[in-house]
Each structure stands twice: as C-alpha cells, then as structure tokens.
Please model this.
Amino acid sequence: ASYPATSTHGEDSTMQVNLGSGLNMSVQQTVLPGGDVELLLHVRSDYGGGAPDVMLHWGLLLPGSGAWVLPPENSLPPASKVHKRKAIQSPFYRDDQLGHAALTMVVPAGMGAEALTFVMREGYDNWLKDGRSDFVLPLAGAVGSISDELARAAAYAKWELAGKPALDEEAAYDMFEAAVTELQRELRSGAALADLEVRLLGKSSASSAPVQPARSAPAPAPARREVVAPPPRGAAGGG
Model:
C-alpha cells in the first residue's frame, strides 16, 4: 500500500503511517540540491511509556520492479547492517525524553528509486506489516522510468561533449551513471520526460513518429581493451 503525502511544500513532503500495535510513524522527505532524497522518520506510541524500541527492515523499489534493491553501504544510516544481502536493518535512535524513536536516511539520486519498502520490528520479535504486505512509501520527487535508449543517448552526448575520449570500462560506466543522474535531476526539477526524449532521441515515447530529425551519428568503434562509449545499464563495470 502507498501513503500519499498529507502535506507538500516545494521539495519537502510529510506523510503519516499507522504501523499497528499502537505505533505511528511520521515521514518527512526533502529533495536535496543534488537530487538525493533525505528521509526523517519519527515513531511514537499511542500508549506513551517512552521511546519505542524499533528497527527498520528495508529496501528500495525501482520503477516497474517489485524486487528489493539495496543502496551502497557507504550511504546507509549509522549502525545499519546488510541482512542476508536482501535487506537493510537500521535501528532507530531512542529519545525517551521526547518520547519518540528517530532515524535519518538518504536515498542516492543515482539509484533512480521510486519508493521505500519496509517492515518494522518492535522489540525482539514483533514484526509489523501492512496487513499481509510490506509497507511501501513513494519517494518525494520520484521520477518515471528512464529507458535504456534514452540513458544511452544521454551518455553518448556527454561523451561527445567531452571530446570523445577513449575510456576504460570503469570510466565509461561512471560516465553512463553520471548521465543517468543528470537526467533524473532534470526530471526532479520539472522537465518533461517527453521533452528530454525529443532533445536526445528526436522522438517521444508517446509517439512512434519522430518530431524532429533524430541523431544519425554512428556509435564509435571500441578500441582494443577499451570502451570508448558508455555501456548500457546493467553492463559489468569496474569496481
């Protein structure tokens, strides 16, 4: 189930989630200048008695996929752990004086995630779910799916602008990811996906007919042991 924002102010949004067992969570989201999304989570108990003892068991959802994906470990909240390579477990900080538990997290823009999905553990073994399903919270500023064709065109344009340098596989992949991040930043800033498609592809996915001449420059041939144009997403990159 998704929970729409109860109030929205520019690039900030706030929503409330009833977790069950007398627990309620407020979620404040802020889209940062680089496109990352910062989330501030507060959990309170309807019954008082100090800050709840809770832990978030979570992952991210990409457009068109129900599979949990994990952000880079260097972006995780403090004291978080990767659980069986399938989820992140992040404990909340308990503030008994204020009577709530708090957690701050940042979702990197480069992931292209559209939602946070999670279940909550209270105490040692009380797992809280959205009925029989996981909770799903849409991320502020989430953008539509960027096709591989559009991403490749953006990466190609970026490579051309740089003077068509010869790139090893790692550098080519980094350039591709940077191009995708720039597309996401434009979409978060209000650009229309169709306009980006027209600019980079010469056509919009909403119509099969080109609305202006498409780019016809052929992709450069790769040099030996080098990749001179960024690879498609999903291709093996250097690490």
The radius of gyration is 21 Å. Residues 7-138 form a domain with the Immunoglobulin-like fold (CATH 2.60.40.290). The chain has a mean pLDDT of 79. The longest helix spans residues 169-188.
